[in-house]
Amino acid sequence: MLHCNAGVFYTGHTDNLELRIAQHTSGAIEGFSARFLPVELVWSQEFVTRDEAKAAEKQIKGWSRAKKLALIRGDWEEISRLAKGKDSPSTSSGQTEPVVTRDVLERLRQQARAARPQECCGLLLGESGHIAAIRPAANVHPAPDTHFTIDAQTLIDAHRDARGGGLQIVGYYHSHPNGLARPSATDRQHAAGDGRIWAIIADDTISFWRDAENGFISLSCTIAAS
Could you give all domains of the chain from N- to C-terminal order, each with its CATH number? Predict the structure, then answer.
């Protein structure tokens, strides 16, 4: 599943995920995703047969946005609840305050300092709300002083490592060299509403936010030694 510009989702299947994602992110595949660049891989799953993959694709395409967001978060209880249609979508799901290590905080500050006057960017890695590491990425946006776009290869590598048992992508980070440590109008415009965590760095100040379906939610965090 891809998150595309304008907040829309694209679901498909392939027998070569890395190649297909590279094609989508570069706009090489004409059609839906090419009209909504940039795109980002937010969920994938392997199946034994192509028929199983096609069936899953068809099923997910028929899901509501709330149900797709729950799938991206891995929130199967919410998926089950939404399938039964008993209540409206939960507003509290996925709102656990993050735990972050001191090493991560220092590395985020170092990345922001090194990238000035451009914005740094990358991935927050961990599991269950625990941010244990970061993966720096090249900022490939054509205006890197005021915007950021994480390069596709970093995302592909991180998702591949996660499928192999490595740390999961729990969120993203970027800096505001000439701004404040809070989401900008551009950040809000391009947010996915996928429940992941954003870290924003400005003048060595780091703030954490939940990219919720209805907008960014400010988070406090617990600092762990490791």
Answer: 2-62 (no CATH), 99-224 (3.40.140.10)
